[in-house]
Amino acid sequence: MKICLINNLYKPYARGGAERIVELQAEGLAQAGHEVFIITTKPLFSNRKSAIVNRQSYYLPGLYYNLNKIPKILRLAWHLIDMFDIGNCLKIKSILKKEKPDIVITHNLKGIGYLTPKIIKSQKIKHVHILHDIQLLHPSGLIICGKENRLKNFSAKIYINLCRWLFNSPDTIISPSEWLFDIHQKEKFFKKSKKIILSNPAVILSRAEKIAREKNKPFRFLYVGQAEKHKGILFLIKSFSILCQNFGRCGFELVVIGAGSKLEKAKKLAGTNKYIKFLGQKQKEEIEGLMESSDCLIVPSLCYENSPTVIYEAATIGLPVIAARLGGIPELIHKLDGILFKAGNEGDLMHQMKWAMDNPKVLKKIGNRSQEKIKNFSLENYTKKLLLILK
């Protein structure tokens, strides 16, 4: 089969989990013998080389990659223009006519244009859409814990109605979590679509030896993600600082990997606490090494997440996870094993962190179980299931 994948970002402009899933999906389908090409975006004035070896890719210039640098008032106008982007619409139509794919798999379309599903339908091509977040329910793609009513205000309802009309009902909708399906169904999305739950793929590591933890080293908690408020980084640092105060001299540390708009604020909040270490952005191999030398991953999200990639990555290492009970996270933790805490609750998070330190043997067993269970999520297994859906 010839398969087109469409997502708003792709390497070398990838930023998060959704882009990683698209990359793995493309790799798995190509390995299974199918012809794959990508339609995505690039920064408007970028001269960066975007060629990808052995894979045809189309990069449509746009503002999405640098959207957070645009003033908020202009962003509102951009969202409206993006929904009805005739320019991209015609470009995508031209590409599809030229390439003649058998199937189009769409992912996040903000930045590409929400007219895309109508273009695919007009070309009579089978359309499979994969959900990653709530971009069709709110322009930000975020629901913050305690602010769930933001989907009920007048402007949000107008946005939801427009998105529902634009997307209509692709042939098939895939979601990694029941939660994400349910929240879209409550807003009457995809009435005629076939709906399937399919967990995201994971790359199963096959290292000869696991990095050994050094003896007498502090118990290491690890955070990997964007340094943004909705990801819970400020909440985590505040909770960890209180934990340090309660214990006096620490026998544990928090290592933070990642960058973002709240990084400097996070460092300021940490102050002179020598048990909090900021390592900035790291390459994938470095992150894997740091995961192997850590004792527990913390996922302190304050936003409703679908199926965080970092939890899959931790499981492949055998690193146990403490994560917020929010969105699709509990479903994933139930499948892979781990520990949950009440989102945004400092006391509950500190309680679970203290339990983890007091029960290292039990914690290690949790990590081992996760590492065994993640094998069911291998790229090979995922691709086989996906191809059955695409038939």
What distinguishing features does this structure have?
single chain, 391 residues, alpha/beta, Rossmann fold, 6-stranded parallel beta sheet, 14 helices, 13 strands
Detail the topology: elements first, then pairings.
Elements: E1 2-6, H1 17-31, E2 35-43, E3 56-62, H2 72-83, H3 86-99, E4 103-106, H4 116-122, E5 126-130, H5 154-167, E6 172-175, H6 178-186, E7 194-197, E8 219-224, H7 233-247, E9 252-257, H8 263-270, E10 276-280, H9 284-292, E11 296-299, H10 309-317, E12 321-324, H11 329-336, E13 339-341, H12 346-358, H13 360-373, H14 379-390
Helix pairs in contact: 1-14, 7-8, 7-12, 10-13
Short description:
41% of the residues lie in helices and 17% in strands.
Written description of the protein model:
With 391 residues, this protein is of the alpha/beta class. The chain folds into two domains: 2-198, 3-Layer(aba) Sandwich (Rossmann fold), CATH 3.40.50; 219-376, Glycogen Phosphorylase B (Rossmann fold, 3-Layer(aba) Sandwich). It is 41% helix and 17% strand. The chain contains 14 helices and 13 strands. It has helices at 17-31, 72-83, 86-99, 116-122, 154-167, 178-186, 233-247, 263-270, 284-292, 309-317, 329-336, 346-358, 360-373, 379-390, and strands at residues 2-6, 35-43, 56-62, 103-106, 126-130, 172-175, 194-197, 219-224, 252-257, 276-280, 296-299, 321-324, 339-341. The strands form two sheets. A seven-stranded parallel β-sheet has the order 3-2-1-4-5-6-7. A six-stranded parallel β-sheet has the order 10-9-8-11-12-13, sandwiched between helices. Helix 5 (154-167) links the parallel strand 5 (126-130) and strand 6 (172-175). The longest helix has 15 residues, at 17-31. It is globular, with a radius of gyration of 21 Å.
